[in-house]
């Protein structure tokens, strides 16, 4: 057992450049691993930054669209106001109607729709007389009736 150790030590003493090569190889391996970790970290960080910037751009576009929509709604409200309608109607030659200008037209067979009454007072009121006796009977009454009928039998 001692002989292989001696040969190994002897081999390193003869060629010390082997140990230096191992140290240099280990150092280069460590540098390569650190470079790969740094590159991976940089890749993840850059993708995250790009995604965040895209989100900001989309939120900005949403805000601009909402602003444009609000502007259009405001324009629509001003164009459909009663004052704007009246002004445009007068410009087109219309005028407010006078009672003597009204003319009613009678249509034969037309029946005006009746208003729908949704109040609860029109619902039929159920009284104890209209409900069948089976539904007026309590559990104790039913049990008493059964016991009484068995006594009779």
Protein described:
This protein has helices spanning 2-14, 17-79, 82-91, 133-136, 139-152. It has a domain at 2-89. By secondary structure, the protein is mostly helical. The chain is flat, with a radius of gyration of 49 Å.
Which key features would you list for this structure?
153 residues, mainly alpha, 5 helices
In short:
The chain has 153 residues and is mainly alpha-helical. It contains 5 helices and no strands.
Which SSEs are present, and which pair or pack?
Layout: H1 2-14, H2 17-79, H3 82-91, H4 133-136, H5 139-152
End-to-end C-alpha gap: 112 Å
Give the beta-strand count. 0
Helix content bin: 55-70%
Q: What structural category arises from helix and sheet content?
A: mainly alpha
Number of helices: 5
Contiguous runs where pLDDT drops below 50 for at least 5 residues: none
Cα-atom radius of gyration: 49 Å
What is the N-to-C order of secondary-structure elements (H for helix, E for strand)?
HHHHH
Mean pLDDT: 85
Largest sheet: none
**So what's the overall shape?**
flat
Percent strand: under 5%
């Amino acid at each position: 057992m001692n002989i292989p150790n001696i040969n190994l030590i002897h081999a390193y003493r003869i060629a010390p450049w082997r140990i230096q090569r191992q140290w240099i190889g280990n150092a280069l391996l460590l540098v390569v691993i650190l470079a790969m970790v740094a590159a991976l970290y940089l890749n993840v960080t850059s993708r995250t930054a790009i995604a965040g910037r895209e989100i900001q751009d989309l939120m900005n576009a949403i805000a601009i669209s909402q602003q444009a929509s609000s502007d259009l709604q405001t324009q629509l409200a001003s164009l459909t106001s009663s004052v704007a309608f009246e002004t445009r109607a007068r410009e087109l030659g219309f005028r407010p109607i006078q009672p003597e200008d009204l003319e009613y037209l009678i249509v034969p067979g037309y029946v005006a729709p009746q208003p729908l009454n949704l109040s609860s007072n029109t619902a039929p009121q159920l009284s104890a007389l209209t409900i069948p006796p089976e539904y007026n009977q309590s559990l104790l009454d039913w049990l008493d009736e059964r016991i009484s009928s068995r006594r009779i039998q």
